[in-house]
Amino acid sequence: MRRHRNVKIVATLGPASNDYEMIRALHEAGADVFRLNMSHGDHSEIKARHAIIRQVEKDLDSPISILADLQGPKLRVGVFANGEEELVEGASFRLDLDDADGDVNRVKLPHKEIFDALEPGAHLLVNDGKIKLKVKDCGADFADCEVIVGGTISNRKGVNVPDVTLPVAALSPKDRKDLEFVCDLGVDWLALSFVQRPADVEEARKLANGRAAILSKIEKPNAVKSFDEILDVSDGIMVARGDLGVELPVQNVPPIQKQLVRKCRAAAKPVIVATQMLESMIDSPMPTRAEVSDVATAIYEGADAIMLSAESAAGSYPIEAVTTMNNVAWEVESDPTYTDIIEASRKAEGKTVADGIVSAAREIAETTDVKAICCFSQSGTTALLVSRERPRVPIIALTNYIETARRLCLSWGTNCVVTGEVNRFKDAVIAAVRAAHAQGLVTEKDMVVVTAGVPFNTPGSTNILRVAPCAERLIYAHDPE
Question: Which of 406, 467, 460 is nearest to 433 (CA)?
Fold first, then answer.
């Protein structure tokens, strides 16, 4: 199913999108990737959604990517005797390890690792930053705080600690069980929550053992500081603006988003912009103008994908939300300014033969009447490099591995096609031309650019480029062997 846009759409599944009819409708409306949120739903529910996605994929003969989003370590306060209390600005409030129910003066914080890392002057944010505490004194089992911003605090509200690197593993015991479950199930991407350091990613990669690509969610200040190192060991990135906007001043998030997107593009690694993109569509069939502008901004920046969370998982208008994203993407990408911005922000790369091949493919496609760039890719690397170029013509990514096709569904502009095994370049050219015809991109009078690595079945060996006619008889006439 070829999309008439380049940016991809990620839709989260949940109670509002839990059956075959809805999931198929979401894919037909524009969802390229389905996100399974491991924070909600037990393994039986996740397994059922996974099976439905694969059935839709089979019925529509259209590769679909599945992203399993691990919950990560959740830091929460304990419970209150009255269920909730009102904290007043300037008051004192203690966090400790005492099992007693909380009151207006204190509550349990059942995370010793936080106390081990805290120092006077550090800040703690409770309930998505609605309450702000400043540590005045602390020890191995307590933190005496001043209430800087007051509000209602209630049972098991989340706690953010933006000022320090916590000695907390990115993978909780629950995450380890979930990781093994979804890898055995057969997902394409693993999203890691609350990544702080490259070692968090490396640990997940070791556990996944090649069964899924690793996507790091950037939602901690320390992840921003260590971003270059985290990017190096990740297969993809999610700019998770929810917690990032809690732990950092909100005005910092837009420039960080732009910086991270550009770095991911330069590294040829897919990047998702996520959180509150069409938040009002949870309850409304129409988005706000500001939300539409936010979605458009991410597309103008060249993000590989934009994501829906509760809008498609629990909202009243999941299909309308996907349709809105699709329509905004189509309109933005039809704007001549979009092409100007994308090309102005393209970072020249020329370190390897593969870099030179894909750069030449884009240049040829944009300066001649070539209709598409067709790239053969076993591991997906060639397709990622072509995607990084952000060419003006469609990209057809051909592979004989369905797993590679599914992972590439997250990358900008890639139309993924699963082919039979190819052992000669001429066969690759013929397969490419047939795929271009099948997608309605060419006639027999047109031409395509074909890139591949010879010998075949050698990952990362992109070393050949051909401008090929789209009439098979001409291919045989010019290359009878």
Answer: 467
**Ordered DSSP codes for 155-166:** TT-BEE-TTS--
Query: pLDDT (tens digit, 9 = 90+) per residue, 448-469?
Result: 999 988 777 666 678 899 999 9
108 is catalytic: no
Residue 217 annotated to the active site: yes
Give the pair of three-digit tokens for residue 180: 């093994």
What long-range pairs does 314-318 form, CB within 8 A, spacing at least 24? 314/14, 314/15, 314/16, 314/282, 315/16, 315/281, 315/282, 315/283, 316/16, 316/282, 316/283, 316/285, 317/281, 317/282, 317/284, 317/285, 318/11, 318/16, 318/17, 318/22, 318/26
Going by C-alpha positions, the residue among 113, 146, 145, 149 that lies closest to residue 128 is: 149
Helices of type H across 267-380: 289-300, 310-313, 318-333, 336-344, 353-367
Catalytic one among 8, 205, 217, 407? Answer: 217
Active site residue 76: yes
Neighbours of 351 (CB within 10 A): 7
The single-letter DSSP state of residue 6 is S
The mean pLDDT of the chain is 94
Nearest to 67 by CA among 367, 411, 473, 468: 411
Both tokens assigned to 419: 């082919």
Q: Which of 12, 205, 275, 381 is catalytic?
A: 275
pTM for the whole thing?
A: 0.93
**Which of the residues 24, 35, 241, 258 is marked catalytic?**
35
Which residue in 427, 371, 367 sits closest to 2, CA to CA?
Answer: 371
pLDDT in tens, 267-299: 999 999 999 999 999 999 999 999 999 999 999
Q: How many residues does the chain have?
A: 481
26 touches 49 (CB < 8 A): no
Per annotation, catalytic residue among 2, 76, 174, 211 = 76
